[in-house]
Amino acid sequence: MVLLEQVAVRYSDGPEILRDISFALAPGTLHFLVGPSGAGKSTLLRLLSLALKPSEGRFSLFGRDVAGLERRDLPAMRRRIGVVFQEFRLLEHLTAFDNVALPLRLANVREAEIKKHVGELLDWVGLGDKLEALPPTLSGGQQQRVAIARAVIARPSLLLADEPTGNVDDRIALRLMYLFEELYKLGTTVLIATHNESLVARFPHHQLHLEGGRLAPRTRLSAALP
Ligand SMILES: Nc1ncnc2c1ncn2[C@@H]1O[C@H](COP(=O)(O)OP(=O)(O)OP(=O)(O)O)[C@@H](O)[C@H]1O
């Protein structure tokens, strides 16, 4: 599903932010991505979401070598990836409902089905009474839940979430974790960057531990290459 071998990443001509990164993520697994601030977690998520390219090494996604992709291949690959950005990136002129419905509308799902699924999911994340709200009228935690609902609604093959419980209380954080667990059990590969140590301790999943741009030995070996 995701395979990195000796990958390095830099922004333009800057220094290498990630170095010597090798790991594989199998379908239907959930991994936490942990490490101190500035370690390169968001950069790794940007690479995996195809927003950055490796400056060295090999990166393959869904069985395809990313270096060999043509520009026209990217939209179809990206549609298989759900991303929860640290800064949410909701469309401010669309309601919560319409933001979440977007991936389904792009996939030509029937409106009756969209209504049912989006309503159920927003209900599950505790926003059943905010369907018509515009993002600027929602709190940070509410916007974050809309962003998560939008990222998971179309059951992506790969879900990348940057600090997805950063703005919510413990009860909601648990709910969101249950949602991510549902998803990986259905076959999605889930990667969650987080500083929330109690969440990582409570849910015994694999961990990728980044430190200073490298995978640290504390990375659980199930995620690293043999
Ligand atoms: N767009 C960019 N251009 C240049 N350097 C960047 C850019 N984005 C991040 N960096 C640098 O890359 C390094 C890693 O940043 P990154 O945001 O990936 O870390 P992080 O582990 O996600 O941190 P945090 O936990 O604080 O979100 C930092 O030194 C940062 O300054």
What ligand molecules are bound, each kind once?
Answer: adenosine-5'-triphosphate
Helix/strand class: alpha/beta
Number of helical stretches of at least 4 residues: 7
Cross-sheet strand order for the largest sheet: 6-7-8-3-9-10
Overall outline: globular
- How much of the sequence lies in strands comes to 15-25%
- Succession of helices and strands: EEEHEEHEHHHEHEHEE
Helix content: 25-40%
Q: Calculate the terminal CA-CA distance, rounded to whole Å.
A: 16 Å
Subcellular location: Cell inner membrane; Cell membrane
InterPro entries: AAA+_ATPase, ABC_transporter-like_ATP-bd, ABC_transporter-like_CS, ABC_transpr_LolD-like, Cell_div_FtsE, P-loop_NTPase
Protein name: Cell division ATP-binding protein FtsE
Pfam families: ABC_tran
Structure, briefly:
The protein has seven helices and ten strands.
SSE layout:
Elements: E1 2-10, E2 16-25, E3 30-34, H1 41-48, E4 56-61, E5 64-65, H2 74-79, E6 81-84, H3 96-106, H4 111-124, H5 140-152, E7 158-162, H6 170-185, E8 189-193, H7 197-202, E9 206-211, E10 214-215
Helix pairs in contact: 3-4, 3-5
The structure holds adenosine-5'-triphosphate (ATP).
GO biological process, one term: cell division
Function: Part of the ABC transporter FtsEX involved in cellular division. Important for assembly or stability of the septal ring.
Subunit structure: Homodimer. Forms a membrane-associated complex with FtsX.
